[in-house]
Amino acid sequence: MTDMTPAILILGPSALPLARRLAALLPGAVITGPHARLDVAERIEVVPLEPVADGLRALFLAGRPVIGIAAAGALIRMLAPVLATKATEPPVLAVAEDASVVVPLLGGHHGANDLARRIAGAIDAIAAITTAGDLRFGVALDDPPAGWRLAAACDPKPAMAALVAGAAIRSGTALPDWLSHLPRAPDGAVSVVTSHRRDVPPNGGLLYHPRSLAVGIGSDRGAPAAEISQLIDDTLADAGLAPEAVALIATIDIKADEAGIAAAADALGLPVRIYPATRLAEETPRLETPSDYVRATVGVAGVAEAAALAAAGPDGRLIVAKRRSARATCAVALAPAPIDVDHTGRAPGMLYVVGIGPGRADWRTPEVDRMVAASTDLVGYGLYLDLLGPAAAGKRRHGYELGEEERRVACALDLAAEGRQVALVCSGDAGIYAMAALVYELIERGQDQGGPRPLWSRVRVQVSPGISALQAAAARAGAPLGHDFCAISLSDLMTPWPVIERRVQAAADGDFVVAFYNPVSRRRRHQLARAREILLAARGPATPVILARNLGRPDETVTVIELGSLDVDAVDMLTLVMVGARGTRRLDLGQGVRVYTPRGYGSRGEEVA
Asked: pTM for the complete prediction?
C-alpha cells in the first residue's frame, strides 16, 4: 500500500449522508463521484470523478483504498479489467446505502477486513468478512502485520488449513503478541517458528521473520547498484541471515542521492534511512573496524557499521562487521524487536516531477498515479493540483500562481531536501515546456553559486512523462504527426523574439508540421500573425490548421481550418495551434474532418524538396 487515505465513492446524492459519516470517521478521506449526478446544496468536499469507471480503476491502480456506497456487483464489474494479483491490491469495500452491511471485496489481507470492522462498529452495521483464517484467528496468517514477514520458502496453506480444521500449534520459543492467541499444545500438529536466520521452514508449519535486521551501507560516489546488491546478498548469505528479516538500508546523509544505493534498495524492496554524521559519530565506541581514512573523508570513523547500529537502536548489536567490495562496504546489526522504520533516521528526499496530461484520470499514466500516491506533498499551479481530484486527498498542497515557476520549483526542492516525498505537478508532459528542466537548472545554478541550498544536490529526482498537448491534439484531429514535426513556443518571455522567428523560418524551410505552444497572451498577439505569414509563404493557404483548446476537459474543442483563414482573435492562451506540412492532408469522413500526414514523401505525388 502506498496511500491509506480512502476515497469514498458515491453514485448519487442519496448516498451523501452516509458518506459524510464515513468521511468524519476517516480523517483525510475524500468523497468522489460523477458530478453530473451530484446536486450538493451543502458545503462538502465532493471531487468529480468522470468517467466513473476509469477514475475508479485509476484509484485502484494507484493503491488507493476505495469505499463504495454502491452495489458490490457494480464495483466488481468496474474493477474487473484491472484485477490481477491479490498481493498488491488495495482495500475495496462495498457499503450498503442503508448502512446495514459492510462487505470487504478485495484487499482483505491488506487492511480491508480491519477497515470493514472499524466502519461497521461506527455505523452499527454488519461486517461481512468471509476470510476463513481471519474469522477464526483474527489475523491473516499468510499476511502478518507490520514488522514481520512470512519466509519466502514457506507455503502457508497446509498450516492454515490444519488450524482452521482445529489443530493446535507448537513452538519452542516465545511468540509475538499477534500469534499468542492461537491454540497451543506441546504436541500441536503445526510448528510455528520465529527467527531472523535463514532457516528451513518446518514441514507443514510456519516460519516468520521479525524485521529486526538493519543493513548499513557505505559507498564510493557512483558505486553501481549491482555491486551493492551483490554485496548485501553475499553478506546475508554468508552470515546465514534471512533477507526477509531486513527492515531497511541505512547510510550517511551525504549519500542520500546515491543512485546505486537507492536502486539496490528498490531492487530488494527495502526503504532507505539516512543519518547525519553527528548521529553516526555517537556510535564510534561500538564500531568493530573504525577507519581513520573514513574519518578524514566524511567525518565519522565508519559509515556501514555506524549506520546499521544507529538503525538498530541503543539495544541493538553488530552481528556482521564491515565487509568490503571494490567500491562499497556493508555491515549488519540486529535489533531486539522489529525495527520501526518510520521512527528511525529519515527518508532521503524524493522529488517526482510528473506530467498529468490534460488532467483526466484516464489520461494519466499508472506510473504518475503511483508517484502521486507515494507523495506526502504536492506542489504546482493550483489548477493542476485541482485536476488531480481524489488523488490529491490527504496530501499537503503547495499551490502557486502562473508566473511563479521558480518559486514552486524551489519549494519542491526544499521540501524534498527535508526528506519528504514530493510530487511537482505539471500539465501535459513534465519535460515539454514544463518544470523538469527548471528543476535541473536550479540545482545546477545552486552548485555554481556555492549552493544557496546545498541539500538540493542530494535530492533524488525522477521525471515521469505525460500526454503532451501536441499528442492530445494530434489524436483528437487524426494523425497529423505521421511524419517529421517540431514544437515551438511563441512566448518571448524566456526566448528573444528574433530567435523564435528564425526557428519558425527554419521549420517552414524544412517543411515540418509545427505545434505552436503559447501562441498568444492578453498583451502578445503579433507573434502568431508573423508565424502565419512565414508559413503561408512556404506551404500555401490551404494547409490544414488544428486549433485545439482545453484538451481532455469537459469544454474541449478541436477545430480544423485552413492556414489562409487563421484568425489570431480565434486563439487564446488555452489553445494549441498545429500547422500541417505541405504533405498534410484533410480527410472528410462521416465522423467529421480528420487530418493526417502521410508517413513518406512522394507516395501521394507531393513535391520532394
From this structure: 0.71
